[in-house]
Write a structure and sequence with these properties.
The longest helix is centred in the first third of the chain and has 39 residues, at 2-40. The chain is an alpha+beta fold and 226 residues long. It is globular, with a radius of gyration of 28 Å. The strands form 2 sheets. Strands 1, 4, 5, 6, 7, 8 and 9 form a 7-stranded mixed beta sheet that branches. The N and C termini lie far apart (102 Å). Helices cover 38% and strands 25% of the residues. The chain folds into 2 domains: 1-40; 57-225, no CATH class.
């Protein structure tokens, strides 16, 4: 009887020790997994690309603006000076020409996807999120002499007359939206317009991709030409 009782006590003690060791180990494993997921990104069945955590949206946006400006200069070798709108701007959708894209996300997605099927939905969603209202354009060192202007600098009623009076010619006026990025930060989307007076100008969306750490223009979708 005594021997049986000892065996039962030993069994209970062994089981208790096993539980005491097993559950802390499981807790540590779960904690480790959570930390890895938090700091290194989770790979899901829907997207097998690694998530980049080492990026600076402002720096990448500036690189994209510089790239697009330099692309404009390639086709206008005479340009030595550009004028940049000091606030971000977006495309007005629908007939009344007064409804920004973020108020019509479904129509915006459909329009872009028709011309740019490569554009990720998350890139477009981030673009809409970052352009719900105008902000100060954050740009530096665009690779050409430039000036930032606002409505007070160039009033609508004498816009180009004021522009030619204030700045050297030939020049070009460029506007940008904020840049939208996907989660992996290897795709970007931006709205851009350029004008040089009269019926000279146009605007549209630009899709970009990052290749070997450098941004490249992937596709352009023109929205208007004047």
């Amino acid at each position: 009887m005594l021997r049986h009782g000892i065996r039962v006590a030993v069994a209970i003690l062994t089981f208790s020790i096993g539980i005491a060791i097993f559950w802390p180990l499981r807790l540590v494993q779960r904690l480790e997994t959570a930390l890895v997921d938090r700091f290194y990104g989770v790979v899901t069945d829907h997207d097998l690309r690694p998530i980049s955590l080492n990026f600076d949206a402002a720096t990448d946006s500036n690189e994209i603006y510089r790239l697009l400006i330099q692309d404009q200069l390639k086709s206008r070798e005479e340009l030595k000076f550009i004028v940049l709108w000091a606030e971000t701007t977006t495309y007005n959708m629908l007939v009344d020409d007064s409804q920004p894209e973020w108020k019509h996300p479904e129509a915006f997605h459909n329009m872009v996807k028709e011309g740019m099927p490569e554009a990720d939905a998350q890139t477009l969603d981030n673009y809409l999120l970052r352009n719900t209202s105008p902000e100060q354009l954050k740009i530096w060192n665009p690779g050409v002499n430039y000036a930032l202007v606002t409505e007070s600098d160039l009033p609508d009623d004498h816009f180009w007359a004021s522009c030619y009076e204030k700045f050297p010619t030939p020049s070009i006026l460029i506007t940008f939206s904020n840049v939208g990025f996907n989660n992996q930060h290897d795709q970007a989307f931006v709205y851009m317009t350029q004008a040089c007076g009269g019926l000279c100008g146009g605007g549209g969306y630009v899709l970009l991709k990052k290749v070997n750490g450098k941004w490249e223009i992937s596709k352009e979708l023109g929205l208007f030409v004047s």
